[in-house]
Amino acid sequence: RSIALTAVIFVIATSANEESVTLPSFLRVCHQSDPKLNECIKEAVQKIKPLLADGLPEFDIPSLEPLHISEILIDHGAGAVALKSTYTDIKVYGPSQFVLKSVKIDLKKDRVRLKLWLPHLRVVSQYSMNGRMLMMPISGKGESCGNYSNIDVTVTLQGQRITKHGDVYFNIKDFYVDFVLGHATIKLENLFNGDKHLGDTMNSFLNDNWQNVAKEIKPVLEDNVAKIFKKMANRIFSKYPLNVILPD
């Protein structure tokens, strides 16, 4: 999901007029007056998609295959899941296989909505956790590996216009992510201080009940993902004034 989002932001933020910016030859320029602006952005993303796996450092786009995330904290203190957990050195494999289903840009409302689909993501990290999962006690520290398939994602960006040094810039005020998983499996190493029997039992329990687990922690994960990519998007948008981002 992240690589598609970054691609759309990159295309929008660099679709400037040629007098202001020398554009790379691989980038298709889109104009806000184009009645098929949404289609233009979508086609431009498809064109640069093969380049995104290695990243584009000149535009603050990191390597996205795998995508590296330094840390995610989850502090879920209510309901069937009452859990404090930390994930570090996170590597996400498979985002380059995204399919961008639709792009909808509303320039009057400063809003962007994306729909995309991913066939598979593999997420490897170091974890530590303590608490309850579906009312079952759980604790551990070690490697975590999750496999997620058939993922539908909707991303909504609500922007605002800010003035800096006499120029108007686009800034993302609100960033929302909603995802639906087709299936998920997870393996947590070294649960319960390395007790293999308890660890295997808990992993089986989590995988048998993955839908309930996902339902409980989904809002927290969506919020964490949104914060990460809101920051990345605003770094990109801050490079160009609004009248340069999308030429008339």
TrEMBL record:
Origin superkingdom: Eukaryota
Key words of the record: Biological rhythms, Signal
Cited Pfam families: JHBP
Entry keyword annotation includes rRNA processing: no
Coiled coil, from the record: none
GO biological process, one term: circadian rhythm
GO cellular component: extracellular space
Record flagged with keyword Signal: yes
Protein family (similarity comment): Belongs to the TO family.
Protein name: Haemolymph juvenile hormone binding protein
